[in-house]
Amino acid sequence: MFRAGHIQFKSPLILVVRNLRQRWVRTILTALGIVVGVAAMVAVNAANRSTLISINEFFDEASGKSDLTVDAAVNGQRFDQDILEDVRRMDGVAAAVPAVVGVALPQDEMENWEQQLTVGALPVPGSSFWLMGRNILEDQQVYDYSLQAGRLLLPDESSYSMLLVDEYAEEKGVELGEDFSIAIPGTGEVSLRVVGLISKEGIGVANQGVLGIVPLSVAQELLSAAGEITLIDILAEPSVSSNTTALEDLRQTLAQRLGDEYNVSYPLSRGSLVVDSLHSYQQGLDFFGAVSLFVGSFLIYNAFAMTVVERTRENGMLRSIGTTKGQIMAMVIFEALLLGIFGSALGVGTGILMAKGLVKSVAALTGQPIQQISTAPQDLLQSLLIGIAVTLAAAAIPALQASRTSPLQALQVQARSDGKRWVALGWKFGPLLVLLSYLIFYKVPMRPGMMFLVGSNTIFVMMLGATLCIPLVTGGLERVVRPAILLLFGNEGRLGSGNVNRSSGRTTLTVASLMVGISMVVGIKGLTDSFEKDMDAWVDTALGGDLLVRSPMAMNTDLEPRLRAIEGVDAVTRIRYAASNMILPGGEDEYTLFTAIDPATFLAVNGMRIQEGPDQGTVIARLAAGDALVISANVAIKQDISVGDIVTLETKRGRKGFEVVAIIIDFVGGESTSVTGSWRDLQRYFGIRDVSTFVVKLSPGSSAVAVTDIIENEVGRTKSLTVESKQEFEQRIAELSAQAFSLFDVLALIGLVVAALGVINTMLMNVMERTRELGGLRSLGMEQGQVRRMIMAEAATIGFIGGILGASFGAMLADVFVIGLRSMGGFVLVSQFPYQAMAFSFAAAFAVALTAAWYPAVRASKVNIIDAIKHE
Amino acid sequence: MGVIEAKLVSKQYRMGEIVVDALKDVALAVDKGEFVAIMGPSGSGKSTLLHLLGGLDDPTSGEIMLSGQRISNLSDKEVTIIRRRSVGFIFQFYNLVPTLTAEENVALPLLIDGRKSGTYQQKVGQLMELVGLADRKKHKPDQLSGGQQQRVAIARAFVNDPQIVLADEPTGNLDSKSGTAILELLRHSASELNQSIVMVTHDPRAASYADSVVFLKDGLIVQRLAVEQEGGDEEDIRQIMRVMRELEL
Ligand SMILES: Nc1ncnc2c1ncn2[C@@H]1O[C@H](COP(=O)(O)OP(=O)(O)O)[C@@H](O)[C@H]1O
Ligand SMILES: [Mg+2]
After folding, report:
1. What is the residue with the minimal CA distance to atom 14 of ligand 1?
2. Of the candidates A318, A499, A374, which has an alpha carbon nearest to the alpha carbon of residue A42?
3. What is the pLDDT of residues A680-693, one digit of tens each?
4. Strand extents, DSSP E, B68-162
5. Residue B167 alpha carbon to ligand 2 centre in Å
6. Which CA distances in Å does A745 have to A127, A520, A521?
7. Nearest alpha-carbon partner for A274 in A670, A830, A602, A708
8. Residue of A319, A321, A867 to mutate when probing chain B, most B C-beta within 10 A
């Protein structure tokens, strides 16, 4: 701004501000690039988080928010509560709340006393009422108490007050304010005042709601367990609980610290198959978050590269009047900083809106309810900073190029074409980079932790390589498409299509933004297809049976014949999961989940998907013979183990070698290492006799509901059994995966938006740069409509080339994603060639290019002839 | 000793196998306040010579001296600073920054040199007056005619009190009236302000404003002609055209 004849510019950077203001179209386009990049990142992260929240909430209902639990190695045994302090002091532990559990009998069931309470004071199968002492104040961090009537326990309460589940109180005919009498082994009959009724959710689901919650100190007194507790629920720091690797690290550290007498485990539901496998999705989404960032940075780079080309003459002049390279560079960087701050701030806002809007519309389309978007302030700040940093990084090369502008370039009437250099560069590095990144994915074995880091960086390299390859193929592809373009656009088509060959650099950038966007769509779709296919296979094999019977407490094998005897049950097999360590060739040990199956009954209920090894029957027979294992394919890949190798596990009897008889596709271990062995080996080497899960197969035509009812209410009445049906399970998985997939759709949409923006950006630059030439053509008598058609023909050619490259590169990307996720997660995905997605994307590329070129074409047609010619 | 001297300067361009001798052992000295015109057919090396004199490019052999200091084959940083403080350029296509006003364009070299804005108000004002655009200070380039833009470019070339001003066909793009104004401006600054000027031109009339005319052909200086009268003198113009014919330029 000027005041009273003063020239008010204090630094050359004012040029930058003027530039941004004056060339506002380009400013907006560049900012838009940043906005889209940052918005994509924010949207993906927010959407990602919201899926995780909904998944976690689903399981929190059953097990509270607790991430880990500590109990005695001997089921149900109590231990000194001093250990609580040790646990609380651990890094990563946000809260640790104690509970003491004992068994008791309500007064009206006392005739069965002798029959039911046989094992002293331990809460073992056979108890019917749980007396649970809890510390109500700390407890609410972990469990929800939904109070229906009365009040909760008071923080310092030491009277005989108790909370009951409303359903159970009704069943027993107890009213609020009345006393409830129970008999406790070793203590005798006690009356407790019912001060509050809670509903059967949160903590209320424990033991099917058959429990009374009393102050911790009261329970310890009644159970003659002063200073003792039964279990500790641990709430991890948010950063730990949201990250499976960190949580597993915490689990192992705790287990080591506490020693052999304690068990540190995931709460029942957390350890379940679904959560583990859905964490693979989380990583998949993270992966795309990183890719979207790349796409964003690509767009930003694009915009800045354009700026530099556009201002070659200006920069040359600045150099000729004595501007140093450093000053030129500073100007471009300053421009990037301004745009970065502005664009990133806008991008964060847009990202939140985008995530909300897109997630909502996808939810409406698929009929899947999706948790509302959640956005943590620190994530937003992080996105903002990343946005600015990426903008600066993306502007670095163009800034360098700008500073290298020769002052002579200001004097040249015609800017020299950079085409040859692009081709030379592409020829040298493009195929090399693609090949290199492909090899890294396929040939270099990596630990899962490394995989994400290396994998996402490799994707970047691959995209860069593919971009450099573009000039190599543009000419050939243009010749292929030319007849079609001529047919569509007539003679203007010839001019437009030929333009593609003129400025190699420009075309490359346009095609590249299209290619990257389109390949993201194809890659995502390909991955989704693979996931879906595998989900089906998973449900089929992992859940061979129809019903899963579990209990929060140890179950004995003698339950098996009783389950088998139930009318409608065809077969039953048992499974026990045990923790062990695999000794790796390097000497370090790796946490390993040992799944013990019963060879005698396994095949009657379940099947195995064998990837390598003999047939099912032989494998089972080999397991039955002992000292043999079957390992998951992901373990085989990770540890480079083949059939016939010996793997060493740590057992109660010391280190023990097992022969690998087959490699199977299973999903039990999620991301952790998982092996499957026989029941007899489990007993022999691990000294474990109880059962984790009974898998029940129903006879044809029998009702799952009826059998479930019998198991829960007759057989399990005294055993606290919970039954989960395969149908329920399938439905739940279907819901959760539909949710995850719908987010992939959101990502694909983002990919298309990005592509469109890239095309608008570059086409507009094209038109601006050619103002003089366009004016010349108009002065020769070209009509406005002809100019438009010419630009549209150019866009169509670019759409075709970008579509072809994007679809092929996308197919490769899908494959690479699958491989990346395969080595990261527990999934053994089989690549599905995404024909459909490729066809769709190819059409989309065409449509996107033509739509995006419309405005530039209109602008080109409106070029003022006189201005254009006078211009220089 | 001249303000600027080219000492047996040669320049070769290498394009793969082909070597183009753009300049061959050219020697040229320009004194303080001297106005030299360079003429010659297209491709004879006029622009190349000007670029070398301004330190935009380095000679293949020989040296360029500015006030006794060698400016060829220095580091980019060193030559940039010299250019910034001691050389002024005028281009055929004005090359103004479209986003800056006329007076901001004039002040640009000083700004880039890191001078405080208060210190050059007067200087810029004087130059705008000199080039006759005192009432156009706040105009953007696209609001000015070609001749006016070139006058802004001249003011810009003078703003750092350069030892030498280099102009490559400054009137090539202008009508004769605007061209004459430009030439008179250059003449004035040489005679009255003691400014040294080297100007490339195709136009004998333009060359007649100089003190002497140097003829280039195929990279060689083939003749140097002193101009007797004031600019635009018909006798001088005829003289120049005669030399051009003789040399088959
Ligand atoms: N960058 C360059 N690369 C190769 N040859 C060049 C380059 N610049 C100029 N030349 C050649 O050098 C010779 C002199 O060019 P130039 O100085 O531009 O001539 P003039 O300005 O007299 O028309 C010409 O033959 C031209 O083709
Ligand atoms: Mg020239």
Report:
1. B45
2. A374
3. 998 888 887 788 78
4. 69-70, 87-90
5. 11
6. 50, 11, 8
7. A670
8. A321
Q: Which two tokens stand for residue A772?
A: 């003089």
The burial class, CB within 10 Å (0-12 / 13-18 / 19+), for A336 is buried
Q: Is B201 in the pocket of ligand 1 (CB under 6 A)?
A: no
**Is residue B221 a contact partner of residue B39, using CB atoms and an 8 Å limit?**
no
State how far the Cα of A211 lies from the Cα of A201, in Å rounded to an integer: 12
Tell me the ipTM for this assembly.
0.71
Using CA atoms, how far residue A776 sits from A308, A771, A780, A869, A870, in Å, is 24, 9, 6, 7, 10
By Cβ distance, the residue of B57, B80, B111 closest to A324 is B80
Contact of A22 with chain B, judged by CB distance below 8 Å, is answered with yes
Q: Please tell me what DSSP assigns to residue B169.
A: S
What are the angstrom distances between the C-alpha of A276 and each of A245, A288, A369, A724, A844?
11, 19, 21, 18, 35
* Residue numbers in A near B98 (CB within 8 A): 22
pLDDT mean over B172-198: 89
Angle at A254 between CA A252 and CA A255, to 5 degrees: 65
Pairing mode, strands A673-678 and A589-597: parallel
Say whether B56 and A406 touch across the interface (CB within 8 A): yes
Q: Domains in chain B and their CATH numbers?
A: 30-59+71-246 (3.40.50.300)
Judged against a pLDDT cut of 80, whether residue A72 lies above it is answered with: no
User: Chain B contact for A3, CB < 8 A?
Assistant: no
Q: pTM for the complete prediction?
A: 0.56
Q: Mean per-residue pLDDT for B137-158?
A: 89
Q: Sort out which chain B residues have CB atoms less than 8 A from A22's CB and list them.
A: 98-99
**What tokens appear for A176 in the block?**
């609020």
For residue range A142-186, what is the model confidence (pLDDT) as tens digits?
Answer: 777 788 888 888 888 888 999 999 888 888 889 999 999 888 877
B15's enclosing H/E stretch is strand B4-15
pLDDT tens for A7-61 read: 555 566 777 777 777 777 778 877 877 787 777 777 767 766 666 565 555 444 4
* pLDDT value, residue A396: 86
B145 close to A (CB below 8 A): no
- With beta carbons less than 8 A apart as the criterion, state whether A79 and A72 touch: yes
Which residues does A552 contact at the CB level (< 8 Å), separation at least 6? A206, A207, A268, A720, A722
In angstroms and rounded to an integer, the radius of gyration of the C-alpha atoms of chain B is 18
Looking at chain A, the whole-number percentage of residues with pLDDT higher than 90 is 6
Distance from CA of B117 to the nearest CA of A (A): 6
- CB spacing of A21 vs B99 below 8 angstroms: yes
